Amino acid sequence: xxxxxxVLAGALALxxVLAGAxxxxxxxxxxxxxxxxxxxxxxxxxxxxxxxxxxxxxxxALVERAAAGTSHALYARSPGGAAATAERVARWRPxxxxxxxxxxxxxxxxxxxxxxxxxxxxxAMAGDLEGAVGLTQILAETARNLLGMRVDVKLSxxxxxxxxxxxxxxxxxxxxxLRRARRxxxxxxxPVTALAGCARYLTxxxxxxxxxxxALVSYxxxxxxxxxxxxxxxxxxxxxxxxxxxxxxxxxVDVHRRLAAFGDDSSNYLWKLYAxxxxxxxxxxxxxxxxxxxxxxxxxxxxxxxxxxxESTARFGTPAVLAAAWDEGEIRxxxxxxxxxxxxRDPRMGELASPIGAVPGLYxxxxxxxxxxxxxxxxxxxxxxxxxxxxxxxxxxxxEQYQARLVRGNGEATRNYSLHTTGWAxxxxxxxxxxxxxxAFQFVLDRLQVLNAIAWVREPDAIHITAAGxxxxxxxxxxxxxxx
Length: 484
Prior knowledge:
With 484 residues, this protein is an alpha+beta fold. The protein folds into two domains: 56-151 and 186-284, Lysozyme (Orthogonal Bundle), CATH 1.10.530; 303-480, 2-Layer Sandwich (Muramoyl-pentapeptide Carboxypeptidase, domain 2). The chain has helices spanning 59-69, 72-77, 82-90, 93-103, 107-118, 140-145, 153-168, 172-185, 191-209, 212-221, 223-233, 240-245, 253-260, 269-285, 287-297, 304-307, 319-327, 338-341, 368-385, 400-409, 435-450, and strands at residues 125-126, 132-133, 332-333, 343-345, 365-366, 391-395, 425-429, 454-458, 462-467. The strands form three sheets. Strands 4-6-7-9-8 form a five-stranded mixed beta sheet. Helix 1 packs across helix 14, helix 4 crosses helix 5 and helix 11 (223-233) packs antiparallel against helix 13 (253-260).
C-alpha cells in the first residue's frame, strides 16, 4: 500500500550461473542451478548444486527460512520490544478475526499485519496525516479514493494538535474526548474501521492479483507496482516465493531490478509478515521461548547469537585448544586462492599470534560450514559483479586469548562473546574494486540473511559475517579445494 520507489540500483553484469553441467553425465538433472565456481578438472569434483536456489519442491523450506531470516528487525525495532508489541496486538484479536473473515484471509496474517504496520497502536502515524495512519497504516488518498473511508486531513490535523496540547498539560480526559472526535473525521484512527478498510484492500488486491500471498505483498508495495513486477515476470502467475527467490542479477533480471528499486523493503514484506505471525504464535503458546529469543535477538546488532547462542556454542579458549580443533578437522584452512574462490586472504590475518606464543596460520581457518559459506559468497559476488577482483577476508577464527589481545588495540573488537572464537564468523574488508562489486556483494549478503544462512553487520572497515549451522548442502564446495 505504501510503495515508495527509490532510485534504480546500477545494473549488474550478466553472467552464466549454470556452470560445468557437461562435466559429468551423472550429475544433477537438467535445469539444476549450480554455484558458479570456475571450471575445474574432474579431480576437483562435480559442479555443486545451489541448495538455496528456487525449486518448487523447495518453496516451503525457503519461505520458512525467510520468516526466520527477516525476524531480527522485528525483535530489535518493535516499540518496547517484541513481547510488549505482541501484547498490544493481541488486544485486537476479536476485531482482527472479524476483519479476516470478511476478507477471507487467515486471521493470524491479518494480526501479523497489525504487528508490522502499527505495533498494535491505533494512533500510530508515519509522518504527516497524508501518510500512513492508524492501526493498519492506511494512506489518506487510499482511504478516500479506494476504500470509501471518511478522511478530513485538515480537521484531523487540527484535532491531533489539540490532543498533543491536552497531553502536555496532563488532561487525559480531554485527550480521550478529542481522540473519539478525531475518529469521526478521520476513520483511519478508528481501529474497527481501519481493520475493515484493510480487509477491503486485501479483497480488492486478491481480485486483481489472484493470490492471497500477492495481495498481502501489495499492501506495502501497492497493487499497481506489484502488477508491473508481474508483467516483467511473464504471462503466468507465480507464487511470491518463486517471484522473489528465482529473481537474481542473472535470472529474471528485469524482475530483480524492479524489486531492488523499492527503497523501503517492500520486497521482503511478506517474509516479515510471516515472522510477525510466528512472534504472535509464540506469544500465545510459548511466552518463555519468545522472551528467550528476544534476549538473543537484541544481544547484538544482528541475529548471530540466535544462530549460535553463547550457552550452547563451543569456544576456543587458548591456542592449544584451537590447535587441537585443527587436528580434529573442526577447523579447515581458508585458502588464499582468489582465482578459484573469489576470496583473497589478508596477509595480516593472525598478526597478533606471536605475542601469545602462537603462529599466524592458526588463525587462518573456519569451521567447515562457515568456510563453505564464505566460498559461496565469493563465488556469487564474483559472478554477479562480472569481474575477477576478489573480496578480501580480513579475519577468521580466533581463540579467547587472541581476542583479548585484539581488544587492547582495537576499539571495534567486542569484549563480550565473540563469534570469531567459535569459528563461525569471518570479516570481509569494505574495500571494493568497483561499485558493481559492492552491489553484487550487498545482494548476496541480503539474500543469505533472508534465507537465515548468515547474520551480518556493517563495521567501519569490514562486514562481519556469522554463518549459520546446518548448511550441509554447501559442504561439497570444500571438495573443490586443495588444502595442501
